[in-house]
Design brief:
Blueprint (H helix, E strand, L loop, with lengths): L1 H29 L2 H8 L1 H4 L10 H11 L5 E5 L8 E5 L2 E5 L6 E6 L2 H4 L1 H11 L8 H24 L13 H31 L1 H12 L23 H11 L4 E6 L6 E7 L10 E6 L5 E5 L6 H14 L5 H26 L3
Antiparallel strand pairs: 1-2, 1-5, 2-3, 3-4, 5-6, 6-7, 7-8
Length: 352
């Protein structure tokens, strides 16, 4: 059994190693994805807080003058007073000072092409492969399963010696061996959490229905994407009115991402409660653009138990669950996955 596990441990590591390293390195960066993005683009991001912010209607007028002929598709409202608003158009995203209306700059194209963080995110999620089959995502999900096997088999192989110190005075192979064992044991629990939560996310088409089954909670209805029937001369409500309706629909939640509807569409707004540390938020409000009626409202506080499990799993994986301290832990643990592969390969390379 020990010899079989050793060989499986070795060859799975050699086969999946490059994908594990990609997961580890990109994951360590992604733990601080918004913070790094803000740092790299601080001129677009940070503003001096003032007493009154402009309305979305006022900001829209300013942006349409700066970029004539480009319809506005959505807004990203800053949840911190020292950050800019974003106005999303078809070809670019403009960054605007919400107090002065100054256009700070713009990004062209999707984030995964135009920004470092966007590229890292897509490399981590799907190896930069964009197709309907999600080939890259499947590969990375299988790499998560490989990490789980490597960790558990590594624990079994380590157990007889239980060595957790590094001796640098011996042969280089012995030093790599000690490093592999020591790092593996200290990071084992955190890497298991990362790999398991990552696999749950990667195979969500199986795991999410399983959560609903074991909790007995009914899945929510799909949020509508079209407005109710309306008179031909009906006038749509403004984005500012839609935001206020969303605030009332989910008291305590802050809407921060608004999709501006087309002629028959709806206001599709994401919101975040104070305890929702994840940048993407986990609450949603859909408002009819003509009647102002709330067509759908689902907050992370009142979501079915299965969805709360999905939310918690993602927050644990990203390190958002406890804020900066857990981000640091998960970033370092993710980096250790790459260290483990490197030390393991070096042991194999210097085996003779």
């Amino acid at each position: 059994m020990r010899k079989l596990l050793f060989n499986l441990h070795l060859y799975i590591a050699l086969i999946a190693g490059v994908f594990v390293v990609i997961l580890g390195l990109t994951g360590s960066i992604m733990a601080f994805e918004p913070e790094i993005d803000h740092l790299l683009h601080w001129k677009l991001t940070y503003v001096a807080p003032q007493a009154r912010a402009l309305s979305l209607g006022e900001i829209a007028g300013i942006v349409q003058i700066a970029f004539p002929g480009e319809p506005i598709a959505g807004y990203a409202i800053a949840t911190s007073p020292n950050m800019s608003y974003q106005v999303v158009m078809r070809k670019r995203t403009a960054f605007v000072n919400p107090y002065s209306g100054e256009t700070l700059g713009a990004r062209s194209g999707p984030d995964w092409v135009s920004t470092f963080q966007g590229a890292v995110h897509q490399l981590h999620m799907r190896l930069l492969i964009h197709n309907k089959a999600d080939t890259g995502g499947r590969i990375e999900s299988c790499a998560s399963l490989a990490i789980i096997f490597l960790l558990l088999s590594g624990l079994y192989l380590w157990w007889p010696l239980k060595r957790v110190r590094i001796r640098w005075s011996g042969t280089s192979r012995r030093s790599w061996f000690d490093l592999h064992n020591t790092v593996g044991m200290f990071s084992l629990l955190f890497l298991l959490i990362l790999a398991t939560t990552g696999a749950v996310m990667g195979f969500d088409e199986k795991t999410t229905p399983f959560f609903f089954k074991v909790t007995g909670s009914p899945p929510p209805s799909r949020p509508p994407r079209t407005s109710d029937p309306h008179p031909a001369d009906a006038k749509p409500i403004t984005p500012d009115q839609a935001v206020e309706i969303a605030r009332a629909a989910l008291p305590g939640a802050t809407p921060f991402a608004i999709e501006v509807p087309g002629p028959n569409g709806v206001y599709y707004m994401r919101a975040r409660f104070p305890e929702d540390r994840t940048p993407g938020g986990r609450s949603l409000v859909v408002v009819d653009q003509y009647s102002g009626k709330v067509l759908f409202a689902l907050g992370s506080r009142n979501a079915p138990a299965a969805l709360r499990m999905v939310i918690a799993n993602r927050a644990i994986h990203t390190g958002d669950i406890l804020g900066i301290p857990s981000k640091i832990v998960m970033s370092l643990a993710s980096l250790m996955a790459a260290v483990q592969l490197l030390s393991g390969v070096m042991m194999w390379w210097k085996r003779s």
